[in-house]
Amino acid sequence: MAVMSLPLTSPIKPMLAKPAKAIPDSGGLLFEPKWDGYRCLVFRDGDELILQSRSEKPLNRYFPEVVERLKATLPDRIVLDGELVVARDGKLDFDALTDRVHPAESRIKLLAEQTPAEFVAFDLLALGDESFLDEPTSKRRERLEKLASDGIHLTPATADPAIARHWFELFEGAGLDGVIGKPLDEPYTPGKRVLLKYKHSRTADCVLAGLRWHVDGEPGELVGSFLLGLYDENGVLHHPGVVGSFPVTRRRELAEELTPLITDGADHPWLGDNVREHQRIPGGITRWKAKEAPWVPLKLEKVVEVGYEHTEGGYPSRFRHTAQFKRWRPDREPDSCTYAQLEEVANYDLDAVLRGEVKRTR
User: Fold this and answer.
1) β-pairing verdict for 130-131 and 91-92
2) Active site amino acids
3) What is the pLDDT of residue 149?
4) Can you give the C-alpha Rg of the chain in angstroms?
5) What is the Cα–Cα distance from 132 to 124, expressed in whole angstroms?
6) Residue 353: in which H helix or E strand, if any?
């Protein structure tokens, strides 16, 4: 591969975001949808093009169709910041995107045809011999918008907080992950958490169906994580995710509190002959995990309220990220913890977002 002669060369750490509670009424921010995909910086110098991940690794091998498409549409010398996404049935599909990172070349080629990825640009870092890192967000956005006619998917953006709040609700139905706020007057600062992210947050009551011991202690000493359960409409208990963030002292207390609930698993719905077809259960060996993580079955007696951002994986779905412990719910019966409580969102056409056809209402 030839050495690129761009004003910025890979690897560059992308500018990052920190959580924020609510979209402010005051100005000074450029708001964009938060895409649920793989962060990706694109470096193009003539026939050479690099897709760089957030962790500064090349992604070209896994997304050959994106490389070819960008070579056909981008200016000859350019550096962009954006997101790789896969769209299926009018929504972003993070599972399908994750499947694209596969060791087998034949599998990559097949998936490139079946579930092609798209690159969505949201920042312009360099063009020709010019670097724009020191330019404010407002100027970088103006320059980026001039490229939109060249067939580049450009993320929608607005400086109006009212529109941003509208987008926060509207775009979730297309699988987007919230809203990002960029300070209009700030330069692009690689690796710094300058951006603000406003993400959806919800709660659900789940059955405490199992646990894993913490790796830093002996079995029975420290709780590592809770294994959560939700019932479907047929009364089948599925495993939608885990809770795993506790202080060390609390892990020790939980070990004492939950030990009396430990069962041999003979009647547990996730073990042995009790498992149903298509039931989502803990464990399993994948290309991401070389061995099954051991877990301890519990009597289905306790209910825990957890916080989550959104779900994925179809039905029965799972929590996209590790859930957060909120409180115990002694007032709830385990069999009342069903998928019906998970909030449904209105559908929104993802293709319309990609085309920039956004209804700007107050």
Assistant:
1) unpaired
2) 34
3) 64
4) 23
5) 7
6) helix 350-354
